[in-house]
Write a structure and sequence with these properties.
heterotrimer, A alpha+beta (94), B alpha/beta (392), C alpha/beta (189), A: 94 residues, Alpha-Beta Plaits, two-stranded antiparallel sheet, 11% helix, 20% strand, B: 392 residues, Rossmann fold, 6-stranded mixed β-sheet, 4-stranded mixed β-sheet, 13 helices, 41% helix, globular
Chain lengths: 94, 392, 189
């Protein structure tokens, strides 16, 4: 992981406290991926079962319609492809 | 205004808790701590405190509830002994590493087995690396005052660590002594209001306590804990000074008795130090230059004070009321001996393990230690580094 | 009074040896003395022999070990009499026993020949005053006659403070009457 130098003990809150809510989003888990999900828009029926199952909240939805994947956080686990009732999601090599 | 009343060490701790009136007490009774929890539960039942008392089903739950309560910003207390402390072990470390200022009177008792309910220090000595501060009390008055002071120490912004206030099981916990009590109002004023900077219940500023902390930050958090212990050596004297201003009693990290011109000294924690003072008076009357050093705090370890006090003496016997099975003596001995190593004028040191499982340590045993020290000085060397005092 | 007075109480679990040791200490505390009172915990069961201690001093008490050489030994239960009961008690010491037997019989059972012995039938006194065998309070009265460690008034004040709310006026007065009676009836030789 290419990251800026992590903070030292003098610069972080004591006791392991995380003093910012929702900071998990800052952790880009997208680069853990070997296979990425790709959707066939024509086949998708927008049932949003993938959205319910995705463990990383990486299914993007707008106006009750699936619009794609958050590749910054999708770890490529393939659950979405597995649960899709119309098999419109395929896992493809990065 | 102050009044002198007859109280056991346990009652003294419970009375201090009543005056502190913590927001939350989660505790489980265990001998010889029972009368603390029993006494405090009575205060709750009688409506004399507004504390939320959680009668948990085990010590593991007691400390867990304390961690949750303290993280929410509640002033939190519990109390335990021996096997109870052992059962809360996992959470004891979590309380310290999460930097929650929980105050816990611990009534020292031998940690089984063989099963035993009487005094030794094996329970809290085992917790010496847990990150808690540890205060050891000689008598009931100190129990009362240290419990009150511990609140300020734990909550101090440069410390923010939990504190154990230790006293000797049965020897002081169940012995009635006269103690000076201070006004409720004065005690409340001294401890002041408590406001945690980040409360788990503050929905406007949500925070996370106790997240997974792996190779990337765990070490940094441990380094912070070490710094907090170090800081406490600077911050605690401020609290001593303020306590003296409020109540008149002078405190320090160590207590000494006739040590200034002494050649031989005993180092001992808690109630044994009192008995040693009586022996010192007797030996001084015979013209012997003997003295005592009693660390009041084992964490933070007051290294500078101890080294300064013992430097220049001819021989020092360090008494441990617990066995460490290291072949290097008890914990108090190992740490003090190590602290003295760089001191050019260091005394000869010898270790005595004593009083395990409540075995009484009487005047004769203590006299025999001073007699041994005389022999050591004469021989200019320590023959047996580790000795067992009062064992058959 | 000597600088440090140590009293050892012998009783059986349930006879109030702990309470007696504590009441004596508290009365002394009220009189401005320094005190300790503590039991020697063993098997905490009704009937088991137990020992409790009172220390009274003009100066703060630093001692935190058991009492090895008591100045006074009080035996609340006569069946405990044996030479072991006077262990550590010097010839200058005093033994006070709840018994309906004469002083000579106590000396014989305990082998305590030189020091003073006080006897009183505290069990009978408690039966007469309280209606049940609770000899601990009468034994306090007997001890205080033998050696005035505290004033009776200080003891009564303490007992009233402790007992009135707990057991009511009638029983509190019965306890005090028992103390008075034993104070009057104890024989010393």
């Amino acid at each position: 992981m290419a990251e800026k130098k992590a903070k030292g003990w003098k610069d972080i809150p004591i006791g392991g406290l995380i003093d910012k809510a929702g900071s998990a989003a800052d952790y880009k888990t997208g680069d853990w991926r070997t296979f990425k999900p790709v959707r066939d828009e024509k086949k998708c029926i927008n049932c949003l079962i993938c959205w319910m199952y995705c463990p990383d909240s990486a299914i993007l939805v707008k106006d009750k319609k699936m619009t794609g994947f958050d590749y910054e956080h999708c770890k490529g686990c393939g659950i979405c492809a597995s649960v899709c009732p119309v098999k419109c999601i395929s896992m493809q090599k990065e | 205004m102050r009044k002198v009343v007859a109280m056991t060490g346990d009652q003294a701790a419970a009375e201090a808790m009543r005056q502190i009136e913590p927001d939350v007490v989660a505790a489980y009774p265990i001998t010889p701590q029972t009368e603390i929890v029993m006494g405090f539960a009575q205060f709750v039942a009688d409506g004399r405190v507004q504390t939320e008392m959680i009668p948990v089903e085990s010590e593991h739950s007691a400390m867990s509830a304390c961690v949750g309560a303290a993280a929410s910003g509640a002033r939190t207390m519990t109390a335990t002994s021996a096997n109870g402390l052992a059962l809360m072990w996992e959470i004891v470390y979590i309380a310290a590493s999460t930097r929650l200022p929980i105050v816990m009177p611990v009534v020292n008792r031998a940690l089984s087995g063989p099963i035993n309910i009487h005094c030794d220090h094996s329970d809290t000595m085992g917790a010496r690396d847990s990150g808690w501060l540890q205060i050891y009390c000689e008598n009931n008055q100190e129990v009362y005052e240290n419990v009150i002071m511990a609140i300020r120490i734990a909550e101090h912004k440069d410390i923010r660590l939990p504190v154990m206030v230790c006293q000797d099981g049965f020897i002081t916990s169940h012995a009635v002594e006269g103690i000076k009590l201070y006004d409720d109002k004065q005690v409340k004023e001294f401890i002041g209001a408590y406001q945690l900077e980040h409360s788990l219940l503050d929905i406007d500023k949500p925070v996370t306590y106790g997240p997974l902390d792996l190779q990337d930050f765990y070490f940094e958090h441990k380094r912070q804990q070490a710094e907090a212990i170090k800081n406490s050596l600077k911050a605690i004297p401020e609290i001593f000074a303020e306590f003296k201003k409020y109540f008149g009693s002078a405190y320090d990290f160590i207590d000494t008795y006739k040590l200034d011109d002494a050649e031989l000294a005993i180092v001992a924690l808690s109630s044994t130090a009192g008995t040693t003072k009586v022996v010192i008076d007797e030996l001084r009357a015979q013209g012997k230059n003997v003295g005592l050093l009693r660390p009041r705090f084992f964490r933070p370890f007051p290294k500078e004070k101890i080294v300064r006090a013992l430097s220049g003496l001819k021989a020092v016997a360090i008494l441990d009321r617990s066995e460490a099975f290291s072949g290097q003596g008890g914990a108090l001995f190992a740490e003090i001996r190590s602290a003295l190593l760089d001191e050019p004028k260091r005394p000869l040191t010898v270790n005595y393990i004593y009083g395990l499982g409540g075995r009484d340590i009487d005047l004769q045993q203590i006299k025999s230690v001073y007699a041994d020290l005389e022999k050591i000085v004469k021989a200019k060397k320590v023959k047996d580094l580790i000795n067992y005092l009062g064992v058959r | 009074m000597q600088e440090l007075v140590e009293v050892r109480w012998h009783g059986r679990g349930g006879q109030g040896a702990k309470t007696a040791a504590q009441f004596l200490a508290e009365a002394a505390l009220d009189a401005g003395k320094f005190i300790q009172a503590f039991p020697e915990y063993g098997p905490e069961r009704a009937g088991a022999p137990i020992r409790t201690y009172t220390r009274i001093s003009e100066k703060p008490i630093n001692l935190h070990c058991g009492v090895v050489n008591p100045g006074y030994v009080v035996v609340i239960d006569p069946t405990l009499l044996s030479p072991a009961i006077v262990e550590g008690l010097s010839d200058q010491g005093i033994l006070v026993v709840n018994t309906n037997e004469p002083i000579e019989a106590v000396r014989k059972k305990t082998n305590f020949q030189k020091g003073k012995v006080g006897v009183v039938d505290a069990t009978q006194i408690s039966l007469d005053t309280l209606g049940r065998p609770m000899p601990n309070m009468p034994m306090l009265g007997a001890l205080l006659k033998v050696v005035p460690l505290v004033k009776l008034e200080d003891l009564y004040k303490n007992i009233k403070a402790k007992f009135l709310k707990k057991i009511g006026e009638e029983k509190t007065n019965a306890n005090i009457a028992g103390i008075k009676k034993a104070y009057e009836q104890v024989r010393v030789g």
